[in-house]
Amino acid sequence: MIFKTSSKYNLASNLYDFMERGIEAKLFSKLREKVIPLAAGTVLEIGVGTGKNLQYYNQSVKVSAIDFSKGMLEKADKKLKQLNRQNIELILMDAQNLKFENNQFDSITAAFVFCTVPDPVKGLKETYRVLKPGGKAFFIEHMLTDNYFINSILFMMNIFSKIFLGTSMIRKTENNIKAAGFKVTSSERYHYGIVRVIVAEKSIK
Predict the structure, then answer these.
(1) What are phi and psi of 172, to 5 degrees?
(2) pTM, to two decimals
(3) Contacting residues for 3 by C-beta, under 8 A, at least 6 apart
(4) Which one-letter DSSP state was computed for residue 54?
(5) Are 190 and 31 in contact (CB under 8 A)?
(6) Which of 39, 33, 82 is nearest to 63 (CA)?
(7) Which fold has domain 2-201?
(8) 190: pLDDT confidence band, cut at 50, 70 and 90?
């Protein structure tokens, strides 16, 4: 499953930014600009993709940005070189099996990632594991809504998104975040509730 999904993103990497250019300009870039600068200290970005978040990180943070697709990382690397940022490292890694120590990061970011991770709760538990107690995770995700009509459209879209990208349009990602152990401190809804900005934290035990 990991191989199949990453291979789909390798193939899609050359067209990915082009395919998303409309919604990126209308909504996604605004959410990135709002959320990504909130990350502080040592930061892990889950699923850096083509690097759309990179320009929004503060210069003061140290970022480890991972993705399981070599093709997507190649696109992110080109953007990183254009930005000339020395505080960001790109790493080929699977979100379901993070090669980091427990309690390593102050902040974690993920934008439109846990719709694609084959086992999202496993990936989120790994995210929780590497976050320091008291640390915050910032998610921008699309998911099912409370609207039956919109959900019926998402179910139809899901047929094609699963085939071509391995992406699910019908996950309940906020519930998955909670199931992984996070405490959700805020959840904002956009685009008819399909897109949410979720801030969650790891409790201090």
Answers:
(1) -105, 75
(2) 0.88
(3) none
(4) G
(5) yes
(6) 39
(7) Rossmann fold (3.40.50)
(8) very high
